[in-house]
Amino acid sequence: MHAPALPSARHQRLLGAALLWLLAGGGLLLSTLVPAYTESLGWTPAFWLLGAPLVVLLALEPALPRQLLALCRPRRRTLHAAIWH
């Protein structure tokens, strides 16, 4: 097994663009400047403002959901640490 390679500059730019797209789309939907659902387009605005950038993020960083879950889970203390600390 070899060490993980550092992300390239292009990868970092794509990741930054996808994050910016997601934040801007979320802001537009939360501010109600763009409705999440319209009669003529259906759920298309919500998809293009939230769903599409999430798909791009998952394509660029497939391990991202697992890393975020690991950050959210509380660390379990071992029995030894619980007794002595």
Describe the protein's architecture and organization.
This protein is mostly helical and 85 residues long. The chain is built from four helices and no strands. The longest helix has 22 residues, at 9-30. The model has no long low-confidence stretch (mean pLDDT 84).
Major sheet? none
Averaged pLDDT: 84
| Stretches with pLDDT under 50, minimum 5 residues | none
What structural category characterises the helix and strand content?
mainly alpha
Any idea what the shape is? extended
Number of helices, where a helix is a run of at least 4 consecutive DSSP H or I residues = 4
Taking all Cα atoms into account, the compactness measure Rg is 19 Å
Order of helices and strands: HHHH
Number of strands: 0
Portion in beta strands: under 5%
Q: Topology, please?
A:
Blueprint: H1 9-30, H2 44-60, H3 64-72, H4 79-84
Helix pairs in contact: 1-2
Q: Which key phrases capture this entry?
A:
85 residues, mainly alpha, extended
Sum this structure up briefly.
The chain is mainly α and 85 residues long. Helix content is 64%, strand content 0%.
